[in-house]
Amino acid sequence: MTVTIYLFPAFIYASLALCVLLSYRGAKIVNLSLGSVFTLGGYSSMFSPLASPAVGALIGLLLHVCTKGMDTGRATLFSLGLAIAIEEALRISFRVEYVLLRSHIIHLFESKLVLEHFLAFLVSATFLASFLFFELRGSLGKLKLRVVEEDLEIAEIYGIDTERVRAIILVVSSAITCCLGGLYLSGRVISPTIGWLSLIFSCIIATIAHAFRDKAYILVLPVSLGLCWLTW
Amino acid sequence: MKGLRAGYEDEAALRLTVASVVIAVLAIIAIVVYSVLYVPPTPAREIRIGALIPLTGEFSSAGVVMENAARLAERHAREMGYNVRVIIYDCGDKPEGAKASFLALVREGVTAIVGTYSSPQAMAVADLANQTKTVFMASVAAADLEGKVRAGNKYVFRNAYNTSYWGFLASEFLRVTNAKSYYLVGYEPLKTFNEGLFYIVKKLSAAELKGERWVKSPAVLPDDYKKAARELAKVDVEVIILGDPGPGSVDFVREYRMAGGKATIYSVGGTLALPDLLRELNISGIAFQAAALEQKVKTDLTKKYFEDYRKVYGGEANNYAGILTYDAILIIAQAAAKGGDLISNLEKGTFIGAAGFYEFSETHQAKWGSDKLRGTIGIFRDGKIEVLL
After folding, report:
1. Which domains, and CATH codes, for chain B?
2. Which of A54, A155, B341, B364 is most buried as measured by Cβ atoms within 10 A of its Cβ?
3. ipTM greater than cut 0.85
4. Any residues with CB less than 8 A from the CB of B157 and at least 6 apart, and which?
5. Under-50 pLDDT residues of chain A
6. Which residues in chain A have Cβ-Cβ distances shorter than 8 Å to B274?
7. Helix, strand, or coil here: A61?
8. pLDDT tens track for B328-355
């Protein structure tokens, strides 16, 4: 039981860290809006469980369009502004003392679990497995991503549509983050700032993984498992 | 005969003229005297009360209810005949924000300032109150403000509990429920408050202390509450005293029950003292303290506060941060309306609020635990709230 309790957060934080890493290396932005996007997922799930990924994808697209052509510093600042804007919009829209997200309890391995947390774990596991497959397979897509990460100008010389790669990264990472927020915040009392807490922990994981350079994407999960195990 | 009549008519005309002149002079004198002596009734002096409320940051959810309660207090004070205007400033969640807003309120020319949420904010603002000679009424924080008063800062008052009273209520709960054992779960960001509370509980309670566990801030370890809940579910204990008044307490309770924990959880209030939320959670065996509960009428204002809050804002009224902010504004209004020295009025007077009748001790602490002002303990069981104390 204890294993599942720390496995779930480890997979979820690993996914968030992967989104942070991808945004930084591929889209050249420290995407600080991911914390608020995570929160937004929670609020969106109040209306429909399917709303979260769609809302997240839209925010990602907005970020891409608005930061097109900006350097990393300016784009990061913009993402911070976007995060604050989302937070304030939530604060203005939900002027209530508390928002408690509904959840469902299931019995698994003779213990009780929150269904939505289990689903968040499944989404994370699928996302991480897909990316691991993408990384290990050595496809053309992986090669394109590597070139974009190394140098945008060289990537364009090679004929890679860097804007398209950037858009895909920002849209997918925001959609996944928002979806995870919608699921993992279930059963909790949420506030407009709640996503920052998860973003901070994920950034720590991403920073450690980033130190391993080419192996960063592969090592995100082990680092997350290690940190969760250490703190558990 | 003719001459006699003419003389008579002249004399009559003369008398009439003199009488007219005398009347006219008297009338002019009366008008002059009246206009000099008459002071036209002026509307009662406006009492401007500043409110420091965390509209943004970590405590912004509590800020919503504090703001609502402050607006309600303004309305009720006017109904009571006090010409009150409440000016609300955002104090955020840091002492620096509270200090900046305090100074801005002083510049607005307020009579007194109420509010702040956290203890560090209240401590920072207390020093400014002394420097600016502006009365500050702490309506939520449990920090050692009495020490400031002892050190000569006479501008600080508190209508909220001090840490001792929080501890007293928790130990009363253990006594009333005949609990044989208890466990203390503290929240690290509120360590000063929780340590003081736990110290009093250990001192006053005869029940066996099974252990103490501190939950880290979610900013450091987002899932530490889960670990604490799982650990405690394995401990055989009757009552868990939970020191976190924030949303983390909800996570703890849910996780604890999911892990099979059976103990009654006594919350210091806050999120777990909201009737609507308790009904939504529907987890039995959650006890909580409250400054007042709708089920236990203390003054004429108790019912009015809860009823009007529901009517105006459409939700259940908060029974600690909200009600005490409401009471703080009413206390200032009553004291300021007396005229003269506000501090002296506060020190000597008795003031009605929704939680009871307030009087202040020599250290400017509201006399909680007296016959006129007592906290309440409720418990959520089988879908409804019962008043225990």
Report:
1. 47-161+297-358 (3.40.50.2300), 164-290 (3.40.50.2300)
2. B364
3. no
4. B135, B136, B137, B138, B346, B360, B364, B365, B366
5. none
6. 97-98
7. helix
8. 999 999 999 999 999 999 999 999 999 9
